[in-house]
Fold this protein.
Amino acid sequence: MNESTTPIMSPTDAIKKQLPLTQSLTRYLNTRCSESVLKQLSLEVEDSSQQVKTHIFFDQEHHRPTSARSYPIVYQRKRIGALNLLKHADLPGTSPSELTNLSDQIGILVKRNAIQTLSHQYLGKSASLQGYSDQILNLEKTIERIAAKLCPVFIQAESGSEVIDVACSIHFSSYAKHHPFYEIDCASCDEEDFAKKLHHINTSMNQGCIFFSHIDALSISQQKYLLEQLTTQSNNATSYTSKIDLQRVRVISSSEQNIQAMVDSDQFLPSLWHKLNFFNLNIPPLRERPEDIQVMVEQLSELYQLSPEQHLTEQAKLMLKNYRWPNNVAELEKVLLRAFTLAQENNIGEQTLASIYPQLAATTDYSLSNKQCVDHLLAGNLTPFQKYHPSLQKALSFIMQNWQRDISLKELSANAFVSPSHLSYLFKRALQRSFKQILAELRIRKACELIEHNPNLRITDLCMEVGFGDLSHFEKIFRRYTNMSPREYKKKYQP
């Protein structure tokens, strides 16, 4: 990879000196693109927060070849760069739809970097979403649209989720990003404190964002007071104002509880809920996006390492990935901070993690064997797959229901709402085999069950029954998984 904003240096030194934006984009593209595809790409983006233009070339042998086609990188309808397809006769072609999708996602990552810069500048800490899962990128796409309109936003999330990061992403993506961002934790305020904080906002803020976290903790009297502050009032015949001017100040609120259920049980004012719930965002829990855990572990490890020699073993990383994380990112951060602080050795393994945080010891099933995976599909049981990517779960469910049909990767990915290349990657990474291998073994196991139930079944009928269109191919696959032919297997069960 070549970085044109840095002087000529060795590849190792160049990587070390990359800007955060370049590091983020490089890491993302390496997770989504094969080496052959990367060689066809160059990238140019502009980070307005740092006034830096970045050019990245991934082909070391053909530096700056002619661009065959350019895909604009856009955020909130403004062009902020381009993803360029480079013409190389010796490299395979790349789908235009894949490149268009990549350019859309790169725009989100460029803005994510700007949000980190602005939040650090104004709040003293970097606050932005992390990870490259489809759930997080889709959430950021929604934030991109919502941020353009000054309307109230409600965030629903489990305990320990990235609520402040979502709130900051909304604010620092809006036109009011250089105006104040003020958080009120409703769970820590009594009625007097709550009134004082609202009074302070009313007298000091005429534009910006107010974030009410744990809105469900407000008492009915506090809810009434907040509603009064948000209600438009008449000063005279021609002028209408509200104590918190919703035309100039965005209100964001969040809760771990179901506010609609609280409204239904008379625990929350419906009129206040109506004002707060204009746009509704849901943060997916960490257990539903295990691929984000790996990214977060790497970033938090760099943050909490006491020395560069400290590192997690692969088995320790696998333990972290497969844990359910009931308190989400906050819990993950706490575990890693404890691990790097308390570990006596630099090579931090799974036993060390379990001794520091015993809850992790319950996570023992790191991956499913071939037989276990197919056993669960045969039983119609998708529960063991819940720790995997939702798109992978959808694909496995589709296979379970349609295993007798001729299923293509294109059809499977369409039903899983993910690209074919990314679905292949999910199968290989999570289950260590392709969907074709899982489908083939499922069909053979079904064939064995049919033979055991009816040993006199004709081989040709059996072949068609389990979804194979070609008899010789069926016999070849059957022998591969059972080490015998279908006829030999039948003889075992014939009287």
Notes: The longest strand covers residues 67-75. The radius of gyration is 27 Å.
